[in-house]
Design brief:
3 domains; alpha+beta; 35% helix
Length: 647
């Protein structure tokens, strides 16, 4: 888990719950991780005793300053008799990670204190071939390899330093050297290296000491030296204050009226916007989650752009008035769309195709297949029209029309099962099975209707009519083939087994909310109501929240539950209550689910992917960008409906 991320769109720094730096991404958010998830430690030596912040004996409170991407961390160690208050940020417009540290004596006596800051870089996600050295020109420590440079410095200037080997022939690293309060390492080390610096000072009884620490990231020595000069030649607190003020101005720039929400919901709403921003690359990629811990169980990570997640996140940002961010996303989509008119499973932050498991060959039939989950293609068009409909930036829409909208819509209009008239089999949105899925069908309808709207906008009426006719025929086929008279509700999918035969999959799945959300059917349709009732009855978790689908095995905690509670699925149910509400009183069920999400957030406001049904704690990655964007969207939809019903 990552409790407090800070970033600016090209440099992202993540902390774990022990206040240890775990990830440093540069020059893209999500690409590359120059720590590879390894721990960079923070330790204190005091009158002969030593403790890392990961040791027992610390009370830790990891939060943010309100409405900012500046942390507000408090650490207390009674046995050492000290309190640490720290603020961390990444400068809003420079690739500088900056920390202010204040050490307070609570023992009531004069003491000698030494703070040690350790760095375990693995540049280019590889521990081989790095160099760490003391640079007399900048009076700093520098780690470098090829075009990646990280410069480390403090004010007042650090008193001791060490470079050394780590992860090699039993050598753990220079952090071990610090534990006796002294550093004895070299001035330069190459290979698999780490470094540690020490700041020494005296604390008066009841007194305090303050220093600043920073890491500048760049592609050559000149760049990091320039950034170091900016901080060293000025008051470092100015960078902190400037960045804090920038984020306060940014998150409040649209003056969104959040009344009559509770202070807790308002706080998480703004925190969610800030965290979403931190997970976005300046080039337009919206990363699913930048939490490297997942690699320990999956041999891969979530630091990718899934067009599915990206489209939903973009929709939430547009609802909140941040269209400048979503335009970057749509522009990127226009550059990476496949020549055949669809999006592949996922992409790296720089737009290159990422790792994936969607097969292009069906081993059973011996035939090629399109390696996609079609909802990703459809959702991008749906989100793009929603963007245009709010902001009417017609030049932008026209630029993407021939490049992306037409190819994607033409593909969807032709990618149809010849007998059923439904979208042909592809992977579902959860990416765990192929077939014809109700959610996918609903999203394709929305995508085709969006394309029809664009075609009408640009006076291509014949094209618009063709897209609308295909969308309407899919809706009719959904009612014919995907509604089950036996169960009295919609099926999750028609499951194909490597041939032309299929069988109905009646598993209750939270994604069936797409039936009304994408306007395929009215929210008051009895068939929709019975389907959503099944979600309430079958997917409710005893401690609150909604599971993805029946017997979801992904990171499942308890066999007594249908699965872990997912924040997005819980908020989808809230969207149903919002959509169907006819009175303000009927909105209370939605508000209760929004409140539940607030209660399950980490103290910092970070939302994970899932909530443990037994402990209530976070499960899987954190933060999950999609969780935060869904909270934003549901909150805004709630407010919109409340005002409609009470005006």
């Amino acid at each position: 888990m990552r409790d407090i991320p800070v970033g600016n769109g090209s440099l992202l720094v993540n902390f774990d719950d022990k206040y240890q730096i775990r990830d440093i991404y540069f020059p893209h958010v999500g690409q590359e991780n120059h720590t590879y998830g390894a721990v960079s430690r923070f330790g204190v030596w005091c009158d002969g005793s030593f403790a890392w912040t990961s040791d027992a004996g610390w009370e830790r409170d990891l939060r943010y300053q309100p409405e900012t991407l500046v942390t507000a961390v408090k650490l207390k160690n009674a046995s050492l008799g000290i309190v640490i208050e720290a603020n961390d940020t990444v400068a809003s417009h420079e690739n500088i990670f900056l920390r202010r540290v204040r050490i307070f004596d609570i023992a009531g006596r004069k003491r000698s204190v030494r703070v040690f800051l350790h760095h375990d870089f693995r540049l280019y996600e590889n521990k081989v071939g790095d160099t760490a050295y003391y640079d007399p020109e900048t009076r700093s420590l520098i780690h470098y390899q090829k075009e990646r440079y990280f410069l480390i410095n403090t004010a007042p200037h650090f008193d001791t330093f060490a470079t050394g080997r780590k992860d090699f022939q039993g050598q753990e690293g220079t952090w071990r050297d610090a534990e006796d309060g002294e550093l004895h390492g070299g001035v330069v080390t190459e290979g698999s290296v780490d470094s540690t610096i020490g700041v020494h000072f005296e604390l008066e009884p009841g007194g305090n000491f303050e220093f600043f620490y920073w890491i500048a990231a760049g592609t050559d020595h000149a760049e990091v030296a320039r950034l170091n000069g900016h901080v060293a030649s000025s008051d470092p607190s100015e960078y902190l204050d400037y960045t804090a003020n920038y984020w306060r101005a940014w998150v409040n720039k649209n003056e969104t009226d959040l009344e009559p929400l509770s202070p807790e919901i308002k706080e998480l709403f703004k925190r969610s916007l800030l965290i979403v921003h931190s997970q976005m690359d300046n080039g337009g990629a919206i990363l699913a989650a930048n939490d490297w811990d997942v690699t320990l169980r999956a041999t891969d990570h979530y630091s990718y752009l899934w067009p599915r997640d990206g489209a939903f996140v973009a929709e939430a940002l547009d609802l909140a008035g941040f269209s400048h961010l979503t335009r970057k996303f749509f522009d990127l989509c226009g550059r990476i769309v496949h020549p055949n008119g669809y999006f592949l499973q996922k992409y790296n932050a720089d737009g290159t195709v990422a790792s994936g498991w969607h097969a292009a060959w069906d081993r059973w039939s011996g035939k090629p297949q399109v390696p996609i989950q079609e909802d990703e293609t459809a959702l991008v068009l749906w989100s793009l029209w929603e963007h245009y409909d709010r902001y009417r930036d017609i030049e932008f829409a026209h630029r993407l029309y021939t490049r992306m909208t037409i190819p994607c819509a033409d593909f969807m209009a032709e990618f149809i099962h010849p007998e059923l008239g439904l979208p042909a089999p592809s992977w579902n949105l959860w990416e765990d099975r192929r077939g014809i899925h109700t959610f996918t069908c609903a999203s394709v309808v929305a995508g085709l209707r969006a394309a029809a709207n664009f075609a009408e906008l640009f006076a291509e009426h014949g094209r618009a009519e063709r897209y609308r006719e295909r969308a309407d025929s899919i809706v009719a086929a959904m009612e014919r083939y995907l509604f089950s008279e036996q169960y009295g509700r919609y099926l999750r999918s028609l499951q194909f087994n490597g041939d032309d035969n299929f069988e109905p999959d009646a598993t209750v799945d939270a994604s069936l909310f797409g039936l009304f959300y994408f306007d395929c059917f009215s929210v008051t349709d009895p068939k929709v109501a019975s389907t959503m009732r099944a979600i309430e009855e079958k997917l409710g978790v005893s401690s609150g929240g909604t599971a993805r689908f029946e017997n979801d095995g992904y990171m499942r905690v308890s066999d007594r539950e249908p699965g872990n509670a997912w924040f997005i699925c819980t908020l989808w149910l809230a969207e149903y209550y919002i959509a169907r509400a006819m009175t303000a009183a009927e909105l209370m069920k939605a508000l209760a689910l929004i409140d539940w999400v607030v209660q399950k957030a980490l103290p910092s406001g970070v939302l994970a992917e899932q909530a443990d049904p037994v402990t209530g704690g976070p499960v899987s990655v954190a933060p999950l960008t999609w969780s935060h964007s869904t909270f934003v969207a549901a909150t805004l939809h709630y407010l919109e409906k409340l005002r409609e019903l009470t005006k």
